[in-house]
Amino acid sequence: MSEYDPQALQAKWQPRWEEMDPFRASEDAADPRERRYLLDMFPYPSGDLHMGHGEVFALADVIARYWFQRGYNVLHPIGWDSFGLPAENAAIKHDAHPAEWTYRNIETQATSFRRYGISFDWSRRLHTSDAEYFHWNQWLFNRFFERGLAYRKGGLVNWCPKDQTVLANEQVVAGKCERCGADVIRRELTQWYFKITDYAQRLLDDMDQLEGGWPERVMTMQRNWIGRSEGADVLFEIEGRDEPVHVFTTRPDTLFGATFFVVAVDAALADEIVTDEHRPAFEAYRAEVAKLSDIERLSTEKEKTGVFLGRYAINPVNGERIPVWAADYVLSDYGHGAIMAVPAHDQRDLDFARKFGLPVRVVVHTGMADPGETGVATSGDGEMVNSGPLDGLRKAEAIAKIIEVLEVERKGRGAVNFRLRDWLLSRQRYWGTPIPIIHCPDCGEVPVPDDQLPVTLPDLRGEALAPKGVSPLASATDWVNVECPKCAGPARRDTDTMDTFVDSSWYFLRYCSPGHTDGPFDVEQVRKWGPIDQYVGGVEHAVLHLLYSRFFTKVLYDMGMVGFTEPFLRLLNQGQVINGGKAMSKSLGNGVDLGRQIDDFGVDAVRLTMVFAGPPEDDIDWADVSPAASQKFLARALRVMSEVASEPGVSFDGGDVELRKVTHHTIDEVTKLIESQRFNVAVARLMELTSAARKAIDSGPGAADPAVREAAEALAVMLSLVAPYTAEEGWERLGHVGGTVAKAGWPAADPALLVRDLVTCVVQVAGKVRDRLEVSPEIGEDELQALALASEKVRAHLQGEPRRVIVRAPKLVNIVP
Ligand code: ANZ
Ligand code: ZN
User: Fold this and answer.
1) Where does the chain bind ATP (predicted)?
2) In this prediction, what percent of the chain has a pLDDT beyond 90?
3) What is the DSSP letter of 747?
4) Which residues are annotated binding-site positions for ATP?
5) What is the pLDDT of residues 367-392, one digit of tens each?
6) Does the pLDDT of residue 162 top 90, yes or no?
7) How far is the CA of 308 from the centre of ligand 1 (A)?
8) Helix or strand (DSSP H, E) at 716
9) Which among 78, 175, 219, 579 would be 20 to 30 A from 298, CA to CA?
């Protein structure tokens, strides 16, 4: 095997690694090694692995393999997120069972992963569609139910007419179904929810723990999704209605500027208070709005629409009568579904007022032109006017003052509002976790007792799974009709299944003890392994999956089952693999197949190309990279390792000092680069080391010099993070038999060999050279300035403090006396 033949290397080493099984995490509680938990977002088995998988798993494996080399006890598990719609759609199409498609794809991906050489602990493999996994989704559901965190309510929900199922708000993107792109409509349905809103404040507060560990943009997306607003709840009387109505406002200081009142057109309140005279127009308008998505409704570009309801509200601070309108720009499920409109200081209110000829009253003097004339609302700070007791105050003072007044008069209070909604959990599809509830006419919602879990799926396939607006499970009458666990009377199983985001909200805990049978996970094992040190995956999960996992972790913390409140301490979002400047797609025909790339260039060259392409967060344009060049480099590296002519175990001390310095500088730098996740630069350093060793062999001290062996061994170990096959082969050719380079141990840089030769620094005073200092090329500016000012020769030409010191480290210090 003199030429570089990647397929031969793979055929040789893959079976040996499988025999060695070197990446198992130790279960031994007495294992003294420091532990590390690395997690890749688990794949969905949609077919074989694609280029995106190739990238993310190659990147994460750099970290995992580095930790193995450092001697940590590493947990690096793999599993499959194997419930979900595509399997079901494939089953309908091919008259099959979703499990067939699912498990076939899982096997395909598993085979590809093994070839790809990722350092997984295969013994912990899990599939969320296995009953031994989803059993615990149900068990957890029961615990949430007991705590009042799982509940059913009726209401308007997002409905995908194509997939025939409800969608969480999070799964609606710009008014369309995230999965199939169909226009989402609103439907009135009774559904299961998780009460994530109870955790809104903690989901925000605990983000302090993630500062510096998570990408800033993901932090922002999480914060925006939670959407905390501070302000006040204000009570308005509606003439002729007994109960006052709440509004939420972030600007209670503008209360004296409220000139009308708006109720969401689809809120129950609008229907209740509209007068008979105005009802026909109201109902017609409501029917129009029902066709719009929230995004469209809230768009500031859209022309404002609305109808007068024939009623008046009373401003609680000045007793003023203001007309009540219904409009679509107020949403029924935010705040209280009604607002006080302050057109002078809120643009949407102003647009509405101008459209319908409603008055505009300025109450904050900001120095800007009159909004009633310009059509531009002013939202900045200023001096309060036309506002009774608030006149003369600034915004912040006015907010505090009005809240105080409202609280004293019991007409309102300070309030916080969140944009976050409860998590809509139930789906009307088959291939998911059955919700473990039995509906009894006498006892109501009765959880399936823990000792009767798991509730498995009835055996349905093909046409029986076709969407019909109710869950396919409803047609399995034998399965549906059961005895009530409480009263033994006739009852029915809940026929909905859980959102698959439930599965991925705690899988990382299951990996700590995948065979556990007494609960979702072994609390002791999670105490040992958790939280996850490094999570790696796509930014498309920046909101949902991460938010849900964080929520689950907090609930489990409250249950005393985990000892931490945040599951993922660090997060790395890799970029995408694109081609020719565009995302790969069937329609563009610019797809690149991972399997083909591996066939053509070998696993290592593909992995190296992924890692070398740029910073891990950046997109990789496959049109701009060269797996062929990667392959050439690997061939060069292997040749260097093959040509070493000294024996293993030789002392490096007598080796060529120049090459030794290069080797130790490389070790030092690569260590820092890996720690700071600048993997591409680390690869560049390994390329330089390879060239230095090549030169030493060809035109330096020669292949038998111990320094060449030292360089080649360091290269093999460091290269094993990126190109495991080449490194393994090189390690063997270096004379190391048995074992694997993956566990050879990370090389240590010898500080004595890191000292660079000194450079001469010229010190000038008033433009004349007064001294020359021998300094390290890495010297800092402050240190160099201090050295220069301490020089006797320099001091002789200075009286007192110099006026200026200009430092150009390491070569020049210029002192202006
Ligand atoms: C009066 C006011 C005056 C407002 C002003 C703003 C500026 P965020 O930051 O999103 O929480 N609002 C309240 N409930 C609403 C609903 N269901 N649909 C649409 N808009 C609603 O915004 C809160 C502000 O959005 C509230 O403060 C309210 O308008 C509006 F100069 O009240 B404000
Ligand atoms: Zn009953």
Assistant:
1) 586
2) 87
3) -
4) 586
5) 999 999 999 999 999 999 999 999 99
6) no
7) 20
8) helix 706-719
9) 219
Distance CA 559, CA 189 (A): 31
Q: What are the start-end ranges of the H helices in 253-394?
A: 268-273, 279-289, 294-298, 347-356, 371-374
Beta-strand (E) ranges in 171-315?
172-173, 176-177, 185-194, 228-238, 245-249, 260-264, 306-314
Task: Report how far residue 270's alpha carbon sits from residue 233's, in angstroms, rounded to the nearest whole number.
Answer: 19
Tell which atom from ligand 1 comes closest to the C-alpha of 341: 1
Mean pLDDT of the chain: 95
H-only helix segments in 532-678: 544-558, 594-601, 603-612, 627-643, 657-675
Q: Which residues pair with 151 in a beta bridge?
A: 193
Q: What pLDDT band is residue 346 in, cutting at 50, 70 and 90?
A: very high
At 686, list the tokens: 């390994």
**Range from 346-350, 470-474, 493-497 carrying the lowest mean pLDDT:** 470-474
Structure tokens at 170: 């999070």
Cα 145 vs. chain centroid, distance in angstroms? Answer: 27
The beta-strand segments (E) located in 420-509 are 423-424, 426-427, 437-440, 444-447, 481-483, 490-493, 497-498
- 334 touches ligand 1 (CB under 6 Å): yes
* φ, ψ at 463 (rounded to 5°): -55, -35
The two structure tokens encoding residue 439: 């509906």
Residue pair 338/243 in contact (Cβ under 8 Å)? The answer is no
Helix (H, G, I), strand (E, B) or coil at 161: coil
Measured between alpha carbons, how far is 576 from 624 in angstroms, rounded to an integer?
14
Q: Which of 718, 655, 635 is nearest to 681 (CA)?
A: 718
Q: For residue 665, give the amino acid letter.
A: H
Q: How many Cα atoms sit within 13 Å of 279 on the Cβ side?
A: 7
| Residues 281 and 237 sit within 8 Å (Cβ to Cβ) | no
Backbone angles phi, psi at 765, to 5 degrees: -120, 125
CA of 488, nearest ligand number: 2
Given this model, what pLDDT does residue 5 score?
97
pLDDT at 777: 84
Rg (CA), the chain: 34
Q: Ligand 1: which of 226, 300, 330, 334 to mutate, judged by most atoms within 8 Å of the beta carbon?
A: 334
Residues 403, 416 contacting (CB under 8 angstroms): no
Residue 432 above 60 pLDDT?
yes
Q: Is the pLDDT of residue 426 over 80?
A: yes
Q: Which atom of ligand 1 is nearest to the CA of 231?
A: 27
- The answer to pTM > 0.85 is yes
Ligand 1, atom 20: closest residue by C-alpha: 330
Q: What are phi and psi of 397, to 5 degrees?
A: -65, -40
The ligand placed nearest to the CA atom of residue 335 is 1
Give tens-digit pLDDT for 51-70.
999 999 999 999 999 999 99
Which residue's CA is the closest to the ligand 1 atom numbered 9? 229
Mean pLDDT of 478-499: 97
Confidence of residue 229 (pLDDT cuts 50, 70, 90): very high
| CA–CA dist 126, 504 (Å, integer) | 12
Q: What is the sign of the dihedral through the CA atoms of 697, 701, 703 and 707?
A: negative
For residue 248, report the distance from its CA to the centre of ligand 1, in Å.
7
> Which ligand has its closest atom nearest to the C-alpha of 228?
1
Q: What is the pLDDT of residue 1?
A: 40
Confidence of residue 757 (pLDDT cuts 50, 70, 90): confident
With contact defined as beta carbons under 8 Å apart, do 704 and 646 qualify? yes
- 166: tokens are 């409800």
Helix axes 657-675, 51-69, angle to 10 degrees: 120
Strands 260-264 and 426-427: unpaired
Closest CA to 627 of 598, 584, 591: 598
For residue 351, which of 377, 325, 378, 324 has the smallest C-alpha distance? 377
Phi then psi for residue 345, to 5 deg, are: -125, 10
Ligand 1 centroid vs 249 CA: distance in angstroms?
Answer: 5
